[in-house]
Amino acid sequence: MIGDRGEIVVGLRFGLCKMPAPVRLRELIRTIRAARTQAEEREVIQKECALIRSSFREEDNTYRCRNVAKLIYMHMLGYPAHFGQLECLKLIASQRFTDKRIGYLGAMLLLDERQDVHLLMTNCLKNDLSHSTQFVQGLSLCTLGCMGSSDMCRDLAGEVEKLLKNSNSYIRKKAALAAVHVIRKVPELLEMFLPATKNLLNDKNHGVLHAAVVLVIEMCKHSPDTHAYFRKVVPQLVKSLKNLIMSGYSPEHDVSGISDPFLQVQILRLLRMLGKSDDEASEQMNDILAQVATNTETSKNVGNAILYETVLTVMDIKSESGLRVLAVNILGRFLLNNDKNIRYVALTSLLKMVQTDHNAVQRHRSTIVDCLTDIDVSIRRRAMNLCFALVNGSNVRGMMKEMQYFLDHCDTEFKADCASGIFLAAEKYAPNKRWHIDTIMRVLTTAGSYVRDDSVPLLIQLISSANSLHTFNVQRLYQAIRVDISQQPLVQVALWCIGEYGDLLLPGRFDVEPLVQDPEEEVLDVLENILQSSLSALTTREYALTAIMKLSTRLQSSTKPALLERMPLIQKSAANGPVNAVVNGEEKEEGGSFPAPEQLSQQAQVNNLLDLLDDSNPAASVPQENKVPQTGGELLDLLDGLSLPDSQSSGRSDAQPQLVLDGIVPPSPQNAANVKQGIPSIIAYDQNGLKIEFSFEQSKANTNMLFITLRASNSTEMDMSNFVLQAAVPKSFQLQLMSPSGSIIPARNSGAVTQLMRVLNSQKHPLRMRLKFMYNHREAPIEVMADVNEFPPQAWE
Questions:
Q1: What b/e sequence results for 196-217 when a residue is b if at least 16 CB atoms lie within 10 Å of its CB, and e otherwise?
Q2: Amino acid 326: pLDDT
Q3: Poorest-confidence range of 3-7, 144-148, 383-387, 438-442?
Q4: Cβ-count burial of 508 within 10 angstroms (0-12 exposed, 13-18 middle, 19+ buried)?
Q5: Quick one: signal sequence residues (predicted)?
Q6: 63-117 pLDDT, tens per residue?
Q7: Quick check: helix, strand or coil at residue 203?
Q8: Residue 621 pLDDT more than 70?
Q9: What is the separation, in whole angstroms, between the first and last Cα of the chain?
Q10: Which domains does the chain have, with CATH numbers?
């Protein structure tokens, strides 16, 4: 009795320690869905994970399958389930099909090729690939095709190739899909599957044929040499596609009244790849493409998908002209569809075809223009791009009216692209200059704040080249800025025209009755209003000042009419529009206001230039060698070659003060003698791989002027892009930043970006500077502030 009693006590203790049966997956799902807050849901998940871990530690084989299934569900919800990876391998090794099914599913979700655990599956997969049950073979093939690594694919490629020849269509289909993954991972094994794949294309089973077509497409993507091998089966593919079109109703394959649309789409894609750049193959598939295009029902989305693939195939192969017209007409019918996605697809496809089939696309121009009023933003943008692609010399007037109407009513995000498109189309197809100028003025009036940067010099070049329209243009622009000065590019063009052709605004020169009695006073009032307006940008004010200076010689009250003559015709560059020079944000009209060298003597040029600086006419010697200013250079380059008077030639004493322009010309090989060197360099900043070094040069002509050359280098492994420097100095200094040599600092100190700074220190104070660097590094924007206070004393003494 005692012994029996002891056994009973031990049994009771053992029963108390045994884990309770875990909840079923369905109950867990119900509990999680009943959670009212995310915190409550996390609490349920954590408790269940703790129970599952305890069960795994006790090697509970009875409920391992149920626990892994619950882990898979938690993984789908986004919770960590990595601790169940080894349990998946144990289930795969089980002999029960239910265990294998959950084990393989867990392996596909919880494992990937980056984890070494998956290599333990190779033997299990190899055994299951030769299993007597087709469903076990299917599970192993699906797992291999989902997460097999390169090593695993190499080890099991032979078994997959054998299964491609299996008599069971279910196994052949699964093996073909696994072969697709093997080729993606190990492309050099492609040739192993060629003979078996070619035989699969004769299969009557739709699933096997579908998988075989996908496998051939993958082979053609990885090896262009396979195109020639599979072009021999084009007639066979055409026959299969024809059978699908002409076959009657089949409940097994019917989708919305169309026989196996998925297989039809894949065959069309394969025909597109095989027929590209091949006349013979294209000829063989022309008839079947026409049959598909005419016999496919368009009332359902399934038929539209097949027609879209047909259109893409017609576009890519060397098809007949009539077939291409048929494809364009299909896309035209798509534009009338109520589905936004179909309309977007049609516009995108027409945009690709407009270059090769321009006349066919032109027939649907009215429908395309109607898409500009669509409520969908993406459709409007595609329609806008297609409309600009349809513009030619015969329809430019009508299309530009439509696009200008669209520009008036479109959203802000479209205005910049639409204005740019109108400029390009008008420049390419303008019937005459007056229409061209009117079109650009209309755009500047409507969307002047959104036009591209070269619109102002483009219109200036057009106006200057149309001599017969100068009076009309300057009067029209003058009337425009009297009413509205908010469109800054239009105001800038108007100011330039008023400065150049302001005399055409005088009484007797108007095409119509002048609006004011005193045009000179009215014009100056308008220019003054622009200068004082808060709407005027700095560049606009510079244009206004230049116009006032020019009007001092244009109007009747001028005493120096020959000083600033009209600019000669601006030459146009094919790449960037008018050739112009920009100095401090303003076009260099002054450069063209000087007489040409062959028209005036060197002495007259010197006197005229100095007359801008002072009413006096100091003596100047004519240089022995004349240097013509280069277009696009600095404004001060106009002084190159002009020998200003010194103490010996003019007879003045050494105490004569310097001219106001002395010392602001940057050091160059021509004026190196006027530069004082010997100031030691400093490292202004050196952190995070970015090194900023300062080198100094001081002008002898103006000892208050210091030239600082910044050199930025990059010692990291990645380039630094979009590099921008900003600098600030105390109020007693004057600082000018010149343009940098580039915006990308190459990695590993393989190059550098340089930038010149001019500092005017008239009070000889110690130099201090604050720098701000902005750049992108490793796809992240970086902004750095740094103070530089350790300048060498020679820099200001």
A1: bbbebbebeebbbbbbbbbbbb
A2: 93
A3: 3-7
A4: exposed
A5: none
A6: 899 999 999 999 999 999 888 888 999 999 999 999 999 999 999 998 877 777 7
A7: coil
A8: no
A9: 113
A10: 473-556 (no CATH), 682-795 (2.60.40.1230)
